[in-house]
UniProtKB/TrEMBL annotation:
Transmembrane segments: none annotated. It is found in: Peroxisome matrix. This is D-amino-acid oxidase. It comes from Talaromyces amestolkiae. It is an enzyme of class 1 (oxidoreductase). Its EC number is 1.4.3.3. GO terms for biological process: D-amino acid catabolic process. Belongs to the DAMOX/DASOX family.
Amino acid sequence: MASNNIVVLGAGVIGLTTAMLLSQDSNNKITVAAKHMPGDYDIEYTSPWAGANYLPVGQEDHKIGQWEKATWPHLQELAQNCPEAGIHFQDTICYNRKKDQDSTTGKWFAELIKPNPWYNKVVPNYREIPANELADGIDNANSFTSVCINTALYLPWLVGQCRKNGVIFKRAIVGHISEAAALHHSKKKADIVVNCTGLSSRTLGGVKDTTLLPARGQIVLVRNDPGLMATISGTDDGEDEATYIMTRAVGGGTILGGSYQKNNWDPNPDPNLAIRIMKRCIELCPSLVGVGQGIEGLSIIRHGVGLRPLREDGPRIEREKFQDFWVVHNYGHAGYGYQTSFGSATEAVELVKQALQNGKRAKL
């Protein structure tokens, strides 16, 4: 049987997860081609900057919610049985203020912070926090067991899983999607190109998806460990600012965030925003620092900025015929790439299979 030559364009969490699942079929010969690889820190490369965690934001009957539901068992399994992947469980609390519901952050978190959300049957130890346990100004809250991912370990782990299955990695910069088909390590033209270029699909020739825009996230990474993950529906500092705290596994530090600034391309941390973030996180979770301490009690590792690949119509997962090869698109996952990664990659793999079958029928 002839092998299927596949090029996966992009090495973020979506590209690597898709390549890993594709590589489970030994008949697929895969090259991952990317400008940036795990270990790089660049504003164009979103995945290393992510928190990353599992806080569902999609509606249950929509694709995002379905992908989140499908992804949880994989993350749970890795946290339980694969310590080298860099994922651990965290007790999590999500607070809601009704006054935030019309803000950018409130809309982003709408599914996460509603009472009795769909994911209460997915994650372990879900509990609605009684009203008499809530601070003034909090309308409802829940707690459950989630996971947090050390991206500096998890992305290389995905590479390792791909390598075990024979996937070849190469650096490449392409101006047009058609150039990717020539990057297969066999030197033959690829049968399929899987486009996982995230925000770069906005400028990639042959794609140029102008419905993509950045949702700028700014974080502060600290050594302090509050002992839990926490978030709230909004802030009083700005409608596109956010407050969330999560500790990455295996000494990866604690992420303090954040922001959700649409169409903001600035790669440089804003010092004033950083101060607001730190103050908000301490207010939300005083155990971050010692009693009576403010931001001087934080041990800062670094400041960071990432550009989430937000697509106005939601992620694009579909196949498209280009000349004599197929393209399967899998991009536009905004701020939920990790928590939808297995679900959306599984759907992309199915489209690859369909495209390969169509191609073989056409040759007959």
